[in-house]
Design a protein that fits this description.
By secondary structure, this protein is α/β, with parallel strands linked by helices. It has 3 domains: 2-94 and 189-209, 3-Layer(aba) Sandwich (D-Maltodextrin-Binding Protein, domain 2), CATH 3.40.190.10; 101-176, 3-Layer(aba) Sandwich (D-Maltodextrin-Binding Protein, domain 2); 222-289, 2-Layer Sandwich (Double Stranded RNA Binding Domain). Helix content is 37%, strand content 23%. It has helices at 11-26, 39-42, 48-51, 59-66, 120-129, 142-150, 161-166, 198-207, 210-226, 265-290, and strands at 2-7, 30-35, 72-76, 88-93, 101-104, 114-116, 134-136, 156-160, 173-176, 190-195, 234-239, 242-248, 255-261. The strands form 3 sheets. A 5-stranded mixed sheet has the order 2-1-3-10-4, with helices on both faces. The longest helix has 26 residues, at 265-290.
């Protein structure tokens, strides 16, 4: 049995696919990578909300699965949208790495003036905690972002700590604790998607990490209830039955937050409904300011 594992072509995506392949090979199953280019990889000059949100990193791989060109696809779980094509399942969630963001900088922290990120969540959280900063748009893979930092276009950039760990990169900077800078739902988690057939069950048996699946599943329940897509600054993080969730204004000057026990899906939905009700003005405002329809 040899599986075709679909992946994007960035260094980080390839590292994630290699982790999946290594686990499969330890279980006696051969696998190889099939590199697929997505719209999110090619249209790097515009914000994600202008080309369809995080789903742009996933659609081409979904299509390849449905056409039978690959047997499974490896994703950063946070990129997988709530609405999924019929016939596909997230068959495995690997053990979660760090969910935290990491502020990469060589200059002393007090000297940071301009930070590069195109994430509305990261921008809002940085401005809330450090209102003296200026935030400038920055997209692209890890190598691209680091190159622009070295070119001194920015004093600092924000990357996911898990991505740095997967690439074995040790960089100077500041870890942003996830309890304060609440990450995107499922950040730090690798997901494997396949067709809903016998292969899915085999992949789940070998790769799935139940505690990580539980935590990320609760985050996705809350994400679907809160809504807002990738356009509204939303952070959701669950660990060991406790959830942190917040919605911020685009400028980071206002926010609504909930921190509460979250033992199951019903609790996750209840926390999210309560948060959504209070944060509705912020969500509507974000859509209006970005020129989008809810």
């Amino acid at each position: 049995m040899s599986l075709r594992i679909g992946t994007r072509g960035s260094a980080l995506a390839l590292a994630q696919a290699d982790r999946v392949i290594a686990q499969l090979e330890r279980a006696g199953i051969g696998a190889g990578k099939v590199i697929i280019t997505t719209l999110g990889d090619t249209a790097t000059g515009v914000p994600l909300h202008e080309i369809g949100g995080q789903g742009v990193f996933v659609r081409a791989l979904d299509d390849a699965l449905l056409r039978g060109e690959i047997d499974a696809a490896v994703h950063s779980a946070k990129d997988i949208p709530a609405k999924r094509p019929e016939g596909l399942v997230t068959c495995a969630i690997l053990e979660r790495d760090s969910p935290a963001d990491f502020l990469v900088h060589e200059v002393p922290f007090p000297e940071i003036r301009v930070v590069g990120t195109s994430s509305t969540r990261r921008k809002a959280q940085l401005l809330r905690n450090f209102p003296q900063l200026a935030i400038a748009p920055l997209r692209g893979n890890v190598d691209t972002r680091l190159r622009r930092l070295r070119e001194e276009r920015f004093d600092a950039i924000v990357l996911a700590e898990a991505g740095l760990e997967r690439l074995s990169l040790s960089l100077p900077g500041t870890r942003l604790p996830p309890e304060t800078f609440v990450p995107s739902p499922n950040q730090g988690t690798i997901a494997v998607v396949s067709r809903d057939d016998e292969t899915a069950g085999e992949l789940a048996r070998i790769l799935d990490h139940p505690p990580s699946r539980r935590d990320t599943g609760l985050e996705r329940v809350a994400m679907e209830v809160i809504g807002g897509g990738c356009f509204t600054p939303v952070g959701i993080y669950c660990r060991d039955g406790y959830m942190h969730a917040e919605v911020l204004s685009l400028a980071g000057d206002r926010s609504v937050r909930r921190d509460a026990p979250c033992p199951d899906r019903e609790a996750a939905a209840a926390i999210a409904r309560d948060l959504r009700e209070e944060a509705e003005p912020l969500i509507s405002e974000a859509y209006r300011m970005l020129g989008l329809k809810e």
